[in-house]
User: Which sequence fits this backbone?
């Protein structure tokens, strides 16, 4: 695990510039650093040692050193790949899982990426070809950004702040990204907050030789649990169990102690149960709020008592982290900094708090249950998708209606959403600021060319024939990688901890692709395959417990302890106002939105707070 950065350039080598780029990633790898230069390639890394503790420093090489690699991640089928290569005569110098990639590339070229079961961001230099290869894992767990400059220079890094150290970098802000941000709480990939910097799409690799840049998909060939025609229900239950167990076991590969998030919900309980059975000494962590902390979506926000009770049943070493609104408020500057660009998924504050506590407890690797909701059907609105898909979009009313209109009867909300076209329906299920709301908050002149954020959904499928599964697939392609995987990576790495998501293993993604809507919701029950697959090893209190997402009571805090942040953000001298981004009525409108009885607006306002903080940190 590490952070990588570098560039392809014919300019004279500048060791100070490269070191400055790499050092911005120190939190991703505090254990050691490594560098390599061979014009026109210059690269470096900061390492967090998880595997091959004594011999895994980078760069890593093939036998004749014609292939040089910097790498961020873990390859979980590394032992199998290593055995296969050794039978062909390849000799390994280190115990690092990453070294297998260099020899595999020597054997297969870019097809080597198809063999990797893991999370990774790779920068590989072929001295023979004088070509740079960048690659990113299939689920999108590890980030890798790049910029191709007009003069032919290509810069890459694990995080955006590294680009600020590259001399001559054009850091013009991407106003479309700013416009999209309050709708999603994040910037939709492949865009970034910077107009000229892009993230390499997940499950893709690119090559660059100084003149030609090519981007190619990496096929997901991990299909040994895929759904076959004629599979009966019990067969799918058995496949689900086997696939999940295989994923969790493989993600335990580490030469350091492993910990896990435990909320007492179905997903984290499954991961922790399997891991504890395999390891026997799992360390678990959960967040606890004060008794008066509630969120307007699901009521009481604290699940710590249930988590502690299940940890006792499992026999894990359990840590309960008690937090207050003031604790999270103090953490906001680091939260903003480590995200690298505007990011407002408030549950990431909890992830960051767990990572800090885990690091202090000597845990460098944390398992997460992320991904199960998208793959197996866990979100509450999925119950309505089949019925809603029967409705032909009609004429929407004047008011903005979404799942955030919690004071209205469910059937009234569903009826209103049914009047939207399909992309706007996808927005209404679980996203935030509507186009109408942004037009009122933003300065229209500054965003006159902005496109509707609903285009993000339209790109996945024709707007005319969406099925229930199309909405779920959209969540898998958008919400899962852009929100959940970003949150896990950035907020664990904020404290030099590696977050792992077993339930997005490539073979599980392939299994999920073959499932139908009836496998997502059965008799009104969500995630029925997953519940049945592990009913024999989980208590009824877990398998029959309604879903309760990990939520931060942000709406409550913005109306009391955090209210000064709202005032600062919408003040005349805020970074947002100095940039010309806010409308004249934004301050009053923000106050009205926070006290609205019609819609829940806390996260929309939180987006503006984080955007203001990001601008203050990066464009003072």
Assistant:
């Amino acid at each position: 695990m590490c952070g990588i950065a570098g560039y392809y350039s014919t300019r004279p080598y500048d060791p100070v510039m490269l070191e400055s780029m790499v050092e911005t990633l120190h939190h991703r790898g505090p254990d050691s650093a490594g560098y390599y230069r061979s014009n026109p390639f210059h690269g470096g890394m900061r390492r967090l040692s998880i595997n091959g503790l004594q011999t895994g420093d980078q760069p890593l090489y093939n036998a004749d050193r014609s292939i040089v690699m910097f790498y961020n991640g873990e390859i979980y089928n590394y032992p199998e790949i290593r055995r296969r290569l050794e039978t062909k005569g390849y000799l390994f110098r280190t115990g690092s899982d990453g070294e297998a990639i260099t020899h595999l590339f020597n054997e297969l070229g870019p097809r080597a990426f198809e063999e990797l079961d893991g999370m990774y961001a790779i920068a590989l230099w072929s001295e023979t070809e004088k070509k740079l290869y960048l690659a990113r894992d299939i689920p999108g767990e590890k980030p890798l950004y790049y910029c191709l400059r007009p003069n032919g220079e290509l810069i890459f890094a694990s995080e955006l702040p590294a680009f600020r150290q590259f001399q001559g970098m054009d850091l013009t802000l991407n106003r479309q990204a700013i416009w999209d941000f309050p709708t999603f709480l994040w910037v939709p990939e492949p865009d970034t907050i910077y107009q000229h910097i892009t993230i390499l799409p997940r499950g893709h690799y690119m090559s660059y030789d100084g003149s030609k840049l090519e981007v190619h998909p990496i096929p997901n060939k991990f299909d040994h649990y895929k759904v076959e025609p004629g599979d009966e229900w019990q067969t799918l239950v058995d496949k689900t169990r086997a696939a999940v167990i295989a994923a969790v076991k493989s993600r335990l590969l580490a030469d350091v102690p492993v910990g896990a998030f435990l909320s007492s919900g179905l997903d984290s309980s499954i991961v922790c149960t399997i891991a504890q059975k395999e390891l026997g000494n799992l360390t678990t962590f959960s967040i606890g709020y004060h008794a008066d902390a509630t969120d307007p979506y699901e009521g009481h926000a604290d699940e710590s008592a249930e988590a502690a009770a299940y940890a006792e049943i499992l026999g894990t070493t359990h840590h309960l982290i008690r937090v207050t609104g003031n604790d999270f408020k103090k953490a906001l500057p680091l939260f903003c900094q480590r995200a690298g660009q505007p990011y407002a998924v408030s549950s990431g504050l909890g992830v960051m708090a767990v990572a800090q506590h885990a690091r202090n407890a000597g845990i460098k690797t944390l398992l997460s249950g992320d991904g199960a909701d998208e793959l197996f059907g866990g979100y509450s609105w999925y119950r309505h998708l089949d019925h809603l898909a029967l409705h032909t979009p009609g004429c929407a009313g004047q008011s903005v209606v979404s799942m955030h209109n919690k004071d209205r009867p469910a059937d009234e909300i569903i009826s209103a959403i049914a009047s939207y076209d399909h992309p706007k329906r996808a927005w209404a299920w679980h996203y935030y600021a509507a186009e109408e709301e942004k037009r009122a908050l933003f300065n229209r002149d500054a965003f006159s060319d902005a496109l509707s954020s609903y285009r993000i959904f339209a790109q996945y499928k024709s707007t005319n024939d969406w099925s229930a599964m199309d909405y779920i697939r959209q969540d898998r392609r958008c919400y899962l990688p852009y929100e959940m995987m970003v949150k896990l990576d950035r907020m664990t790495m904020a404290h030099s901890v590696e977050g792992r998501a077993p339930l997005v293993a490539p073979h599980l993604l392939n299994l999920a692709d073959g499932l139908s809507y009836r496998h997502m919701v059965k008799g009104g029950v969500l995630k029925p395959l997953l519940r049945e697959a592990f009913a024999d090893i989980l208590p009824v209190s877990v398998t029959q417990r309604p879903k309760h997402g990990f939520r931060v009571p942000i709406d409550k805090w913005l109306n009391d302890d955090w209210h000064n942040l709202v005032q600062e953000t919408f003040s005349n001298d805020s970074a947002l106002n100095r940039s010309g981004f806010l409308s004249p009525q934004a301050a009053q409108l923000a106050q009205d939105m926070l006290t609205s009885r019609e819609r829940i607006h806390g996260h929309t306002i939180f987006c503006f707070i984080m955007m203001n903080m990001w601008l203050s940190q990066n464009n003072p």
Remarks:
- The chain is about 40% helix and 15% strand.
